[in-house]
Amino acid sequence: MEAIPKKIAKKTVHKKATIKAAKTTKPAVETPKVAHAKHFYAVGRRKTAVAQATLSSGDGTITVNQLPLEGYFMTASLQHIVKQPLATLGQEKKLNVRAKVHGGGIHAQAEGLRHAIARAIIALDPESRRTLKKLGFLTRDPRVKERKKPGLKRARRAPQFSKR
Question: So what's the pLDDT on residue 56?
């Protein structure tokens, strides 16, 4: 049997010890705390709607195009869509959201804003990625309106056929 040089033997023992120490220590999971002047920015999209969201610490106010959430998204269902990422993580009373939305319809804007808020939360707290991904808030919905083709009335609707 060959003798292992002392330098190599020491390195392998040291490596194993550090790997073992790294496995045993677990990071403490706490609710994310945002520094006072720290802002987290993200963009979300849906169809032709684009939403830009900025998260900061605060009391949970959501401002969309310089209007309160209830002033811009009138229905409760649209307000619920926007608040979903914050509500699932229990952050709706801890984070302020300032957003600018444009393009598309009102429903697409709400879903685009949800996408932007979820992305900003990931920038704030990478640990929450698994939860948001599972619920589908990080996936950009790729469905868009199909273009109209020549010779057809709409994208696929052909002119009515008349036999006589």
Answer: 94
The residue written with tokens 């309106």 in the block is 145
pLDDT at residue 38, as a whole number: 87
Separation of alpha carbons 104 and 147, rounded Å: 16
Phi, psi angles (nearest 5°) of residue 80? -65, -40
Residues 46 and 145: their CA atoms lie apart, in Å, by: 11
Its pTM stands at 0.74
State the DSSP string of 77-125: HHHHHHHHHHHHHT-TTTEEEEEEEESS-HHHHHHHHHHHHHHHHHHH-
Query: DSSP E strands: which ranges in the chain?
Result: 40-46, 49-57, 62-64, 67-68, 95-102
Report the C-alpha gap between 87 and 78 in whole angstroms: 14
CB atoms under 10 Å from CB of 61, counted, come to: 12
